[in-house]
């Protein structure tokens, strides 16, 4: 694969006061191609949001490599990361928390352009922000309003516009549609897919919602206790799930059409803790390629 993003052996361990450690991300390898959507799925606590923050350099990794367009990002300082920041932007789950309530949404979208010095004159800045608002389906009159004046779906469109301001190549979306109701969620997903077609965007899509994954992902990585246990194309995962955890996730996914529902075993019990006592660590999974591009961890 001609990868835009290439992550190898990524690791993040959080030490606790009692000497134990939480192995949140453990030797993870993922790639995202140009104009591709890779969905990372799993239950809460599996490490997928930590993975997103590591890739976006909101957290520092304890080991491994993160390459964007072949350039190594691990170890770079905040200043050194600045030229790469414009190529990689993040959309968070809660759009209200992502926006400054004291600023107009127009300013929030303009702020990245101001920080990176991409619009010198006021007229140029306003024109670029107006085009971004129009691109995500918002009105120009919205630019002078504040976050509390918008619905959740509209606020997420503002956040998408802000993410697009620097013309990134990779957008990392961390549960970015999970807080929206189904009809609004569908509208935002359609917008993101349209932007991908028109702009050649790549997405790393972090989610627990398999319906969203089936709608927009090209490839899927299933994460469990900080490790990837299965990875493949959308068809591989949905039509030929192989790892026991992947099967359980799919069995537990809700089906809207009652005619297609069957009695299925649900996920039961708690996910084992990623917390390990001092001196102990998880066993690293080994993957087997059961068909081209379809990797499954040995059990």
Q: Which percent range fits the helix content?
A: 25-40%
Q: Give the uncertain stretches in residue-range form.
A: 256-261
Output the structural class. alpha/beta
Largest sheet: 8 strands, mixed
Distance from N terminus to C terminus (CA atoms, Å) equals 27 Å
Taking strands numbered 1, 2, ... along the chain, how are they ordered across the largest sheet?
6-7-8-3-9-10-13-12
Shape: globular
What would you report as the Rg, rounded to the nearest angstrom? 20 Å
Order of helices and strands: EEEHEEHEHHHHEHEHEEHHEEE
Q: Count of DSSP E strands?
A: 13
Mean pLDDT: 88
**Share of residues in strands:** 25-35%
Question: What does this molecule look like?
Answer:
This protein is α/β, with parallel strands linked by helices and 299 residues long. 33% of the residues lie in helices and 26% in strands. It contains ten helices and 13 strands. Strands 6-7-8-3-9-10-13-12 form an eight-stranded mixed beta sheet, sandwiched between helices. A five-stranded antiparallel beta sheet has the order 5-4-1-2-11, with helices on one face. Helix 4 packs across helix 5, helix 5 crosses helix 6 and helix 6 (152-164) packs parallel to helix 7. It starts with a strand and ends with a strand. Residues 256-261 have low confidence and may be disordered.
